[in-house]
Amino acid sequence: MTTTDTKDLRALAERAEHELAGASAAEALAWTTQTFGDRFIVASNMQDAVLVHLAYQHKRDIDVLFLQTGYHFAETIGTRDAVEAVYPELRIVNAEAAQSVAEQEAEFGPLNKTDPGQCCFLRKVVPLRETLSRYDAWVTGVRRVDAPTRANTPIVQWDDRNGLVKVNPIAAWSDDEFNGFIAENAILENPLVSTGYLSIGCAPCTAKPLPGQDARSGRWAGQSKTECGLHG
Ligand code: SF4
Question: Is 228 noted as a catalytic residue in this protein?
Fold first, then answer.
């Protein structure tokens, strides 16, 4: 798999941002498959298989990126394994940090408590960047309603931080559309969702959101941090 020149990719993303501004998820994924062939990867935090299911309708042998931080809930790992079983032709790409959790804690102590920004950098941002360097585009499940920081997410954009095209096919989906799609298509969901976890990340940094708060408010609850550094 050979990646395309960054300048060409940036121009492609900037054109597509306008041309696909009102595209449906199916249209965005059809464009992604036609444009990038094997050179894209679909990200999943294994909260549900909505994005994987949508992408699988367009291409079976997709690569699915899972950031294996070593701090996940057992239910999240179980969901990853279930996704692999339900969609057998896809390939899970586990992106891992250079150090194991034990090695990191031995060297730095409990970074997720003392310096969560650095912990996310080591266990998410760096492995993500390394994995994405092998592709021309990545597909994410970011939605505008996730949080105020995501309100202007386009369907296609240039990801300057990682140097590739970023496609957000369900950016415009409301919670009703999203939940309706899960119900109508019997989509696999992380069992934690039904217990009240509406945005699932690493276990030490994930709580259930309080009533009336946005879905991501349970992430790093009580801290100023709101994003891992992956999307903003
Ligand atoms: Fe570390 Fe928490 Fe970030 Fe996971 S979410 S990488 S445990 S700080």
Answer: yes
Residue tagged 């991501």 (tokens): 216
C-alpha distances out from residue 94 to 50, 84, 134, 157, Å: 19, 12, 14, 24
Low-confidence ranges of the chain (pLDDT < 50): none
Name the DSSP class of 123: I
> What atom of ligand 1 comes closest to residue 225's alpha carbon?
8
Q: Which residues of 31-70 are buried (b: 16+ CB within 10 A; e: fewer)?
A: bbbebbeebbbbbbbbbbbbbbbbbbeebeebbbbbbbbb
**Which phi and psi (to 5°) does residue 93 adopt?**
-105, 105
CA distance 99 to 220: 22
Question: How far is the C-alpha of 67 from the C-alpha of 92, rounded, in Å?
Answer: 10
Burial class of residue 93 (count of CB atoms within 10 Å of its CB; 0-12, 13-18, 19+) = middle
- Domains along the chain with CATH numbers: 6-218 (3.40.50.620)
Could you tell me the end-to-end alpha-carbon distance of the chain, in angstroms, rounded to an integer? 28
Q: Is the CB of 71 under 6 A from ligand 1?
A: yes
Distance CA(165)–CA(139), nearest Å, equals: 9
pLDDT tens across 63-118, in order?
999 999 999 999 999 999 999 999 999 999 999 999 999 999 999 999 999 999 99
